[in-house]
Structure prediction request, 367 residues.
Amino acid sequence: MNVPLLDLAAQFHSVESEVRAAIERVLQSRIYILGPEAEALERELAAICGARFGVGVSNGSDAILTSLMALGVGPGDEVIVPTFTFFATAGCVARAGARPVFVDILPETFNIDPDAVAAAVTPRTRAVIPVHLYGQCADMPRIRAIADRHHLAVVEDACQAVGATFDGRGLAHWGHCATLSFYPTKNLSAIGEAGMVLTNDEQLAEKLRCIRNHGQGRQYEHHLIGGNFRIAAIQAAALRAKLPKLEEWNAARRRRAARYDRVLAGSAVTPPPADPRCVHVYHQYTIRCDRRDALRARLTEAGIGSGIYYPLPLHLQPCFAHLGGRAGMCPVAERACAEVLSLPVFPELSEFQIDHVCETILDFVGS
Prediction:
């Protein structure tokens, strides 16, 4: 039995007519950048995520960069980030001219360790970027308390967590803003690149809109140094076509995660624990195994897709060598890099496929 890590075709078939109609609507409008489709998506998605404002941008990485620019982060500033995350979290800090400061994660959730955040604050610290990794929110009350104590901006990297909540609160409630990615593999996916920044701050939202369009107020009147971070109307329209399915798709991911949990419980692999304060959206279902690479090879032999997110922590990436990162600096993250393995968890995954994955794992590690 073939079990892909993700099946984009299966999901597209379920919304094909709606997406095609949305594309045609844009083609007929002749408005290809921003416009009414982008404005409608911003309103609709912000409402679903519990935020007052949404600002559509070109992709998830630019959502982080635009947020940092709008918050005034730049040369001479430090921004605290987890070392165990996708590169863009820290890459955007460097692109803004600031210095990423890498800290360790919690072994239970893979999310940033609030105690490590508190210990990393210096007079140069301007912001912290907690990442809601794999679809589960970081411990936002503790992080926001630390940030308030030191007058830091909080940018939630929610690029893997659209629809997630913490203590019943949606994205951007705890941070000054939250960033989303609609890359084709995400829970809510575009048909190309797209992203969004969510915020409850009206002035920040206006500044974000200005920065995404080269810092323009009126046409050819530039109040800020911005960039070309605008969302394409065709992406906004496609996302609007899929948006009514988001809650259903996230619930389906949780059901599939629960089935994995039941079957793998008590085995030699560690299922991902869920923080009871969170509504997890399982962008990834990530287990731990001390023989990860051998297990992955066995899954591949059995026709089962898997992924390693991430094999090398950011403090050990070659491009950040000048920051002085060294092995042993973030031991929890470094161990995670050697043990994590993400299994198929997309909404269209069948019970038979899940059972095949579990049987293969249990046959390898022993039940």
